[in-house]
Write a structure and sequence with these properties.
This protein is α+β, with helices and mostly antiparallel strands. The chain is 48% helix and 20% strand. Helix 10 crosses helix 13.
């Protein structure tokens, strides 16, 4: 097989590929076996028609498409490897020469990763950040712990307040008609969580046990359901139960309940140390992001829209995976939030563009500085994964090789090493604030 690459403009070029006659004939043979097993020819059982009879009746051309389906993907992948290009989208393939007993020639118009013109990335200023834990930060952490260990107590008398969890029945109506997905019974809702249509939770505040109420709201203009966009709705709501958090006292007993320490003073000392470690890690991440952003802003690159679209889809899938871990899915999220998929994607687009830009610049720096993942780096990563998943290193390697992820692991390691390079070659600057 022969392959050549010619750039025609910006990040687009033409990949010219020639598959030798023997390889294409092998594909024709496989295509014939596949087709012959299905075709009916008078006088022959399925799968038993001779090749010569088949081609006389249907023509050798009838096998070309199946043969292309067999040979093209493999030939394209091999050509990409040989020429060293990095495609970012599906190619536009044009068959130039095809025929039995002759070489297959095709051209593929391919969009590839854009070229990056690097600016300054060494000696960038990095803000110095303190890891010291203030009294205010320690108090805030203790209050969060109080909230997490609070007991939900049923409120027999009184009215629902912000922060309460209420158990409600509801049914929604638009123009007097009930709409699909607008009804639930014994639904648990935390007031102030903003998980319902704007205005709904605020109107539940003040309701008492067994009280019924009509709540009037309007669906957002960007709501995912076309027939509900901007529509006024009435929800008939019945409140069954109010639960309120009963916060534990911050004392020695609390310390014993949530830790191995006997006194609150000992627990606060340990908590302060852990907060400092957490703050140090957060500061490290902020410094890394600051330097990556500065390196990206100094670079020049024109990002193809398809790369941003692909990143948006990745972000949407990650978001859906996180929702599933919380017992939700995208459809439920759109129903409760009033947001459409298009609006969510548009909201993600800015971050997606930054991610693509940062990765392109980091890859360019890695190439410029010859930063690569060594075999030792990869083995260390595999060992860590083996410990996490309680498998052997060989098993983890085999899984990653089988699904094509081992190469991506090397790229991820290279990116991390490049970020470390930026930090090591930066200039610390005190934070005036």
């Amino acid at each position: 097989m022969k392959a050549s690459w010619e750039k025609i403009e910006k990040n687009q070029g033409v990949l010219t590929v020639e598959v030798d006659a023997e390889q294409f004939n092998d594909a024709l043979d496989k295509a014939f076996k596949k087709v012959a097993a299905k075709v009916n020819v008078p006088g022959f059982r399925k799968g038993k028609v001779p090749r010569s009879i088949f081609e006389k009746r249907f023509g050798a051309e009838s096998l070309y498409q199946d043969a292309l389906d067999i040979v093209l993907p493999e030939a394209y992948i091999q050509a990409v490897k040989e020429t060293g290009i990095e495609p970012i989208d599906r190619p536009e393939v044009d068959i130039e020469e095809i025929g039995k007993g002759q070489a297959l020639k095709f051209k593929a118009k391919v969009d590839v990763k854009p070229e990056v013109k690097l600016g300054d990335y060494k000696g960038l200023e990095a803000t110095e950040r303190s890891s010291e834990v203030t009294d205010e930060e320690l108090d805030a952490e203790l209050k969060q712990l109080q909230q997490r260990h609070a007991e939900l107590v049923v409120v027999e008398e009184g009215q629902a307040e912000q922060g309460d969890t209420v158990i409600i029945d509801f049914e929604g109506f638009v123009d007097g008609e009930a709409f699909e997905g607008g009804k639930a019974e014994k639904y648990s809702l935390e007031l102030g969580s903003n998980s319902f249509i704007p205005g709904f939770e605020d109107q539940v505040v003040g309701m008492a046990k067994e009280e019924e109420k009509d709540i009037e709201v309007s669906f957002p203009e960007e709501y995912h359901a076309e027939h509900l966009k901007g529509k006024a709705a009435v929800f008939k709501v019945k409140l069954h139960e109010i639960k309120r958090k009963n916060l534990p006292e911050l004392d020695d007993e609390f310390a014993k309940d949530v830790s191995e320490f006997e006194t609150l003073a000992e627990y606060k000392e340990d908590l302060s140390k852990r907060l400092a470690e957490r703050k140090e890690q957060a500061n490290k991440a902020e410094t890394q992001q600051e330097l990556v952003t500065k390196a990206a802003e100094a670079a020049e690159v024109e990002i193809p829209a398809v790369m941003i679209d692909t990143e948006v889809e990745t972000m949407l899938k990650d978001f859906e995976d996180r929702l599933r871990m919380q017992g939700m899915n995208l459809e439920m999220y759109f129903q409760f939030s009033g947001q459409s998929e298009e609006a969510l994607k548009e909201q993600m687009r800015g971050d997606a563009e930054k991610r693509v830009l940062n990765n392109l610049v980091l890859e360019a720096i890695a190439k410029e500085e010859n930063i690569e993942a060594s075999e030792e780096d990869i083995n260390e990563e595999l060992e860590n994964m083996a410990k996490t998943y309680q498998r052997t290193v060989d098993e983890i390697r085999g899984i990653l090789e089988a699904n094509g992820s081992l190469e991506n692991m090397g790229k991820d390691i290279s990116i991390r090493k490049t970020i470390d390079f930026l930090v090591e070659n930066s200039k610390p600057v005190s934070n005036a604030s």
